[in-house]
Amino acid sequence: MNVRRSAAVLAALGVLAAAAPAMAADPSPSASPKVTLPTGLFGKTDPTYDGVWRQSLALLAQRTLGYRPAASAVDWLVGQQCDKGGFAAFRADTAKPCEGKGGAQPDTNSTAAAVQALQAVGGHDAEVRKALVWLTTLQNKDGGWGYSPGAPSDTNSTGVVVGAFAAVGQDPAQLHLQGKSPYDLLAKWSLSCEGAEGGALAYQPDKKGKLVANADATAAGVLGALGKGFAPKAGKAPEQGYVCANSDKPLTPVEVASNGSAYLGDAMTGDGYLKSVLPGAKDQPDYGNTADSVVALAATGWTRPAKKPYAWLEKNAAKWAEQSGPAAYAELVFAAHAMGDDPHDFGGTDLVQALNATGPAPQKAAATAEPGKRVEHKSGIGVWWIVGAGLVFGVGIGILLSGRRKRQQL
């Protein structure tokens, strides 16, 4: 299961503390005799906790690679949508309504991932629109989103939801509730530049209100601050080394992303990978978080600091992906895509073939949907449908001057 999804799920279940750590490997249980794997679903493990998530990442990865996913795979994902627009982790019985007694409970992470996948696939404007409307109703007063309806905001959920709106061309700065946008939340939860963890983002403040650096949340927050989804291309690197931004005023989204990338780059300078922070997992590599961090670095334009962890993934991550399934392969595909590398030769592994083998065979498409950009369809959603419906409003965040401290060279 994807590391961001894992942290959010476990936090929602009360397993983790406020600063939810990332998962080092796929915690999904083996296929249960009580769960029949549906036709069209990617992966062979029990989909109870990650069915929609892994399906969405697999479909988005296939579109990123230039494939048109099988109709059965897309139909399965569409069929998982709840009546009000959200998506649960998995609906074993789609005839049962969601949110009721014994029904599947929709969450922001599954919904936002499904939006990114369906928008990339195309032809599902009605489902995408319905899901986004549902997400707007769950925005918290601080501008962010929590994992489930009514849950306090967390950086991971906010980042993936921002990616969903960005996929249809909606400016996240215009997603305001009581004057607060998701950018306000991400800036508020960015650690100052002082100290070894300077520039990182917290998952949530702890019980005392302290911000604790979290690599998983930082990778998600960087993409959220950039207004990008799971599969961005590499951004443009600054001409000179980055200087961490400090200010008595809120950071701009670009500063949040750059500060977070500086932290991630520094954290992976030594070993070339991130380590799991789970109890009992001392010194164990965190493959998923490392892949997510490579994507975040590249999206910011920091491809030089990303080269060492990317090379480490090429050498070491194939076995992890084989054991973890389609979401893990998708993460590696996104890393290769962001780095401008060939996913057919990922340290000797053909990620394309490996991913496609975990689900229904796709067809090679004539054109690739560009993740993070609105896909034009005959009945296109349009960038401003949300604003026109009166659900969100506001203006972008201005550029702020700030004090600076020297960080690593790009």
From TrEMBL:
One Pfam family linked to the record: Prenyltrans
Organism domain of life: Bacteria
The Prenyltransferase alpha-alpha toroid domain, residue ranges: 55-199
GO MF annotations, alphabetized: catalytic activity
Alphabetized CDD domains for the sequence: ISOPREN_C2_like
Bilayer-spanning residue ranges: 382-401
Protein's name according to its UniProt entry: Prenyltransferase alpha-alpha toroid domain-containing protein
Species name: Streptomyces diastatochromogenes
Organism ancestry: Bacteria, Bacillati, Actinomycetota, Actinomycetes, Kitasatosporales
